[in-house]
Amino acid sequence: MIARKSSTPVSVQDEARAAEILGRVRRMEVRTNRLVDDSLAGRYASVFKGRGMDFDRVRNYVPGDDVRTIDWNVTARTGEAHIKLFTEERELTILLMIDISASSDFGSVPDSKRELAAEAAGVLAASAIRNRDKVGLILFSDAVELYIPPGKGRMHIMRLIRETLFFQPANTGTDISKALDFVNQVAHRRSVVFLVSDFCLGDPLEERLSLLRNKLQTTRRRHDVIAVSVTDPREETLPDVGRVLIEDAENQQVVEIDTGSAKVRDAYEKTSRARRERTAGRIRSLGVDLLEFYNGENWMPELMSFFRNRRQRSG
After folding, report:
1. pTM (2 d.p.)
2. CB-based burial of residue 312 (10 Å sphere; 0-12 exposed, 13-18 middle, 19+ buried)?
3. What pLDDT digit, counting tens, does each position of 167-176 carry?
4. Where are the domains of the chain?
């Protein structure tokens, strides 16, 4: 039997959309590779390579061995002290957790926060692949929308970028805690987890911050968690354009703001920055690194500084 393809015609619009998607993914891949070549060559490997260890075997304890490596089960069974020996892992697993809730589609500059997240994820994925590590992807809103298991290769990176840019989520809200729970379920070996989000946690903020902090702490015990905040300039400052209606993309609430008032603009800026600083403080208090990327600005120096600081701490 010969399998026949559906004869349903493809519209001109569908073909144009497919060509646009492929073109954008390819352009982002080129830019991603250029950023890795120009700025991150060697930095990634010096920070992450060899961070994990694989169990090799046990042997008898000899004076001078680290007592923390004693295998108590074998010691109890044989009556003689034994220690565990490990070999350095040949590869790491990188998990990119990317927030694709409705607020990620906002952008007051040519690119949206989601496009910024996709480019940053592409750079991290390309760095990992060149180091022969595996990269997986988790796209989430207030539920896990898509999971792509860790893999390697150029086509794998292309798929990760394409899905991050164009996957259509079923939900609009944000629930980082559910995504962290999912990571702990699927990642059975220690991984490096990049959590990319605008951290628009909504209200009640303190309750959500407390939950996020608890979930991050739980995940950090098992994995190396790095938070990446993506922010748009309009989320912290308002232009003077008179009265405007602003809609919350995640809950569809609409409010009217008089941007012509200097007091209103000042209050908006102070409140927005206070929320961001409070969230950042909670994250950093756990010992979780936080990178802050701003839409429309060059974020590579922030990433390079992160790698440099990590290398210094580990050195």
Report:
1. 0.78
2. exposed
3. 999 998 899 9
4. 26-41+90-314, 53-88
